[in-house]
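task queued by scheduler; priority normal; single chain, no ligands, no partner chains; default sampling; output format set to structure tokens
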Amino acid sequence: MLSGKQLHGLAAKSWPDMRLLGTVLAPAFDGRRRFCGLYIERSGMIGKKLFVPLAAISHIDISGAYIADSTQLAACKKSAVQPGCIGCAALDAEGRELGSISDMLFEDKRLVAYVVSDGLLGDYRSGRRRYAPQQIQIRD
């Protein structure tokens, strides 16, 4: 399992020939806050920001993000690279605030959990909690 913070800086390689395409900048989310791909920065003198849709990704692990279909890479502006949900409020089903999202956990190509912080003292007392994506609502 990888955290969202561990994704940043991973090598993005083509699969199966292992050609280096660039480095991962951040996970990408759609308008409904669902994980939909990765933002990568192309290696070279002038780093170009690219979006890789989830369907083009073969797998993601600690050694890198492997892109099965590099023809689906799409150029994007650096301003399009958003931090996702980090810092957003996490709410339970009844709308009560649980804390703020401090990280995300990924397993292969799936977002499996949000890590929620309840502040410095709350985290010290009980640790940070993990919630499955379907268990919480996210508010800006």
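post-processing summary
- The radius of gyration is 16 Å.
- The CA atoms of residues 90 and 96 lie 8 Å apart.
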